[in-house]
Design brief:
Number of strands: 25
Number of helices: 5
Strand content: 35-45%
Helix content: 10-25%
Largest sheet: 18 strands, antiparallel, barrel
């Protein structure tokens, strides 16, 4: 595959190119504290960052924005993790190497933002930005690989930036949308898919009178390839996302993905063109749809309602089908977030989020539609996991999340969940949950940074054990992780 041929070449250039002008800082979706701080700046300093498309870009190539970030990080200590990353980058010292060991009795059924599906694993990360180049290498070995390799380089990528543009190759972790527990169209629940990506970021309003109302704008697109162990071998996976911030309190997103081609199926440019223009929704006996698409929008609104306090609301609607050129048969997510930040990183965030992955939730819900496809019956999954919601299809959920940041080095959190999984109870061929289940869930965690070590303990429990294809056989999970930052 092309990305495997390009990866060694780009690695050579990354390591040999000297540091030049400062380009944008790239933040990966690996920390709830970091996201908490990004969300805070997104509302308090609305023109500095977009927050619903991860990896997040911090624009430092524009002198006026670089000065704003320098001033912000010199004059406050409310966002220590984010400002540490910005300051390192401004000093051309963005080189982070870490090693992490995680011990757990099994994987996690329903991971949220920045959480791992895996059980016990060992992970090494080398992240470096040097001039226009970024190298992010991750190597992981784990013990619970029921349907995927025991060792992998998931999350690794190389990218090159010049002004507003960024292109790269690899398998970066991505999270699209405003949700904290779920991302309906693209999340970190499944392993990241490998391929090519391109990103355009305009951090200041366009000069054009026709476009300047959009405010800061970001466009992300990728062309990846899925695994061979599926009904249609190695299909392509294409994605596109547009994000804009037309008002200080409003961020909008448009997302679209498509699976097409694969072994034994037409994968020419004419087929891809049909996918792009939406001419692939054929129905009736004997039809051979060239693609399987999802598309929709998300909205995030947030305001400062008092000193050091913010309130936000968000929603995401993703259509499983198309009618009249627009998404139809939607699945949905909605939530609210209430947060406070004080000095030395002290603060908290409370989130309430609901989702429904049976289509048309406001009418007679249709089951066995979302994340499914009549031809590629593996559906919208990668190595057995949904690339969207961790609850997979036909599920209705509500979660209450609390995050408390005691200072810049200590944090704890808890979560209560009420889940209706696979509500119609159908045993679909490749779905991870084979029966209908109703359950309550609880999760608590504590994290402490001591010198160069970060320790995390976590406990999860479900009231019922869902019959699943993950190989998990316990209702509870205990985790101990230690990370060493070199």
């Amino acid at each position: 595959m092309i990305y495997r041929k390009l990866f060694p070449l780009l690695t050579f250039f990354t390591l040999s190119v000297p540091a030049l002008a400062i380009e944008d800082l790239i933040l990966t979706p690996d920390s709830t504290r970091l996201r908490h701080e990004v969300e805070w700046i997104n509302t308090a300093q609305s023109d500095l960052v977009l927050s619903t498309t991860w990896p997040v870009r911090i624009s430092l190539s524009y002198p006026q924005l670089q000065n704003q970030w320098q001033t912000l990080c010199e004059n406050n200590n409310e966002t220590p993790l984010l400002c540490d990353a910005v300051n390192q980058h401004l000093q051309n010292a963005t080189k982070n190497i870490s090693a992490e060991l995680t011990l757990a009795n099994q994987g996690q059924f329903f991971p949220g933002f920045a959480e791992s599906f895996d059980a016990s694993n060992a992970n090494i990360v080398w992240d470096q930005q040097q001039g226009s180049w970024q190298w992010h290498a991750e190597a992981t070995v784990r013990d619970d690989a029921e349907r995927s390799p025991t060792g992998h380089l998931d999350g690794s990528f190389i990218s090159w930036m010049k002004s507003d543009w960024r292109i790269g190759v690899g398998s970066p972790k991505q999270w699209w949308g405003p949700g904290w527990q779920s991302g309906l169209i693209l999340s970190t629940h499944a392993r990241p898919t490998p391929g090519l990506f391109i990103n355009y970021y305009q951090p200041t309003a366009f000069q054009s009178v026709f476009l300047n109302w959009l405010g800061p704008v970001q466009v992300v697109s990728f062309l990846n390839q899925l695994e061979s162990e599926r009904t249609i071998v190695n299909p392509f996976f294409w994605g596109f996302r547009f994000t804009a911030k037309p008002k200080s309190w409003l961020e909008l997103g448009l997302s679209r993905t498509a699976m097409w081609g694969g072994e034994g199926r037409d994968k020419g440019l004419d087929v891809f063109w049909d996918v792009l223009i939406g001419d692939d929704n054929q129905v009736g006996p004997g039809t051979e749809q060239p693609g399987n698409q999802l598309g929709g929008f998300d909205i995030k609104m947030a305001w400062e309602i008092a000193e050091n306090r913010q309130l936000g609301f968000y929603t995401e609607w993703i259509g499983e089908d198309e009618a009249g050129g627009l998404p139809s048969k939607p699945i949905l997510l909605a939530g609210t977030s209430f947060a406070e930040i004080n000095s030395d990183g002290e603060g908290w965030r409370i989130i309430f989020e609901v989702s429904d992955t049976a289509v048309d939730p406001f009418s007679d819900s249709e089951f066995d539609v979302a994340y499914e496809h009549s031809i590629d019956t593996t559906g919208y999954r990668y190595y057995g996991r949904s690339m969207g919601s961790s609850f997979d299809s036909d599920s209705r959920t509500a979660v209450l999340i609390g995050q408390w940041y005691l200072n810049s080095t200590q944090s704890l959190g808890g979560q209560l969940g009420f889940y209706q999984i696979n509500r119609d109870g159908s045993a679909r061929e490749n779905a991870p949950f084979q029966n209908a289940n109703e359950m309550e869930a609880v999760k608590i965690w504590y994290e402490q940074e001591i010198n160069q070590f970060t320790w995390r303990v976590q406990a999860d429990a479900l009231s019922e054990l869902p019959e699943n294809t993950y190989g998990f056989d316990e209702r509870w999970r205990l985790l101990l992780a230690v990370k060493y930052n070199l």
